[in-house]
Structures are given as structure tokens and as C-alpha cells.
Amino acid sequence: xxxxxxxxxxxxxxxxxxxxxxxxxxxxxxxxxxxxxxxxxxxxxxxxxxxxxxxxxxxxxxxxxxxxxxxxxxxxxxxxxxxxxxxxxxxxxxxxxxxxxxxxxxxxxxxxxxxxxxxxxxxxxxxxxxxxxxxxxxxxxxxxxxxxxxxxxxxxxxxxxxxxxxxxxxxxxxxxxxxxxxxxxxxxxxxxxxxxxxxxxxxxxxxxxxxxxxxxxxxxxxxxxxxxxxxxxxxxxxxxxxxxxxxxxxxxxxxxxxxxxxxxxxxxxxxxxxxxxxxxxxxxxxxxxxxxxxxxxxxxxxxxxxxx
Length: 308
Ligand code: MTE
Prior knowledge:
Bound molecules: ligand MTE
Number of strands: 12
Low-confidence stretches: 1-8, 26-53
CATH class: Alpha Beta
Distance between the termini: 58 Å
Structural class: alpha+beta
């Protein structure tokens, strides 16, 4: 029998086959444990399984080529198809990420030290841009909660503020006065420590490309894409809600929360449906982008029409 030449194996299929193997092996192990063992053991196994959310209920991951050639990154361009080219020479190393503000243990990490310090996870998440395009991305990185816990937030820390690099020599549109740079985003502390929130350093097991937010970006899959701030240099624990880049630019269109919600339209278009990159037909938008079970409790009692 002829061997498949390695050149015909795409990185995507290699990656997905490896994941399938790990999941099958973990499930085989989990079966008898869950049936027979005490809560402690099955709990540990549950959390191991949680680290690999099921690919089948999010659908097929979007091809790497599409994820890396269709981007929003206003520091480089207002277009989507030219970001990868314009960001080609961006230098993601050396890099420093400062964790500061209302914490007992402020710290500055290099990317290598972050990857060694925090247990790495792979998560295949839906991603939904406020402009209605969507995709499914296999991210790698680590839970944001782990980094926040390590910094020991003080009791008056209520929000987390994220800041992108400010370097007009490398990010040409930061020279324009069109908006107030750097890009800033924010989360409530309980959102930031939700199990879904992660800091991503890779896609399909490869380091993030500059256009995708190298070397480190936020991933909050129940929120619109604009909350997923790229190329982060500073994470600051604060008392007041940060005013984010898009809220400052257009407050009636982009609120603090940015939660995916099919029932709250953007003032200029409907949010009822979405289109995944590469697909022909539109899909129904899911409440909280399909992560209602994990996050709906964060917003109990909030009027989601006012707090959009
Ligand atoms: N982060 C920074 N620093 N600058 C940006 O322009 N765009 C946001 C978000 N993070 C943006 C950013 C928007 S609007 C979207 S939809 C996503 O990044 C797009 O991520 P992607 O290009 O990796 O798909």
C-alpha cells in the first residue's frame, strides 16, 4: 500500500486527527471512572474533558487559510483582506505583558514564561463578529482566570482593562487621528474569570500570526469579536468600567457588554442571522453565541436591551 505523501496532509487535518485521538482516549478513560469512582475522581476527569470542548457541537473548524486571511485589525487597515499582508513584518517578539492595577502581586511576563507558568489548553470555539460574519476557531492558550488568580485581585477590583500595543512605527494606522489609540477593552471581573475566557497564543496549534493578534489576545466566545482584543501589552485590574475603543467611537452602536444576542439588532443591521466564512447559507444567531449554559447567570436581572 502506498503511503500518503506528507505534503498532501494539511495542517488542519493533522491537527483535527490528533484532537480526535486525544478525545477518544480521554473518553475511553472517563467511562469506567465516571461509573465507578468517587466524585473527586470524576470531577477531575470532568475538568480534563472541559479543557477540550466538543468539536461536534460547534461544527467544523474554519480552515486556517480563511482564519488568517480575513481579519479585523484597525491598527493595520480598515479592510479585511489586506491585514495579513500589511502585518507581515510586525514583530511579536520580544514581548512584555504587564499585569497591574488593583492586585497584590503585579507582574510582567514574557510570552515564554506565560506559557510555562500556566497550563496550556486547546479549545474549539465559535467566533462571531458584530458585522455578522462568523467562524469556528481551534485556539490554544490558557484560562484568563489562572492569570488573574495569580495576581491576587484586591477587594475593590471590579473590572479588567486590556490594552493593545501602541507602536505607530509598526502599526501604521495608529498615526491617524481617526480614533484614540491604543485599542482598549474591558470585562467585569466575574466575566473575566468565567471558565470560557482565555488568553490565546495559538490557532491550530501554531503560534498566532500577526494579523490574528500575535503574540497574545483575548478570546471571549460569547461576546462579539470586537471584545476579543489583540496584541495585548497590559492587563489592569480597576474599580470603574473601562471605556472601550468602540464604545468611545460610537456608544449607541457598541456597548460595554458586546454579548452576542439575536434579539438586539445593531442600529444599522439585523443580528438575527450570521454567515460562517466559506459557507453559502446563513445560520441563526445563537444567544450568547451558543454559550448560554456557561454565561447566562452572569447577566441575571440585567436588561439586555439596555446593557448591550
Ligand atoms: N484588537 C485590536 N487591537 N484592534 C482591532 O481592530 N478588532 C476586533 C478584535 N480585536 C480589533 C481587535 C474585531 S472588530 C474583531 S471582529 C476581531 O478582533 C477579529 O479577529 P480576527 O481578525 O482574528 O478574526
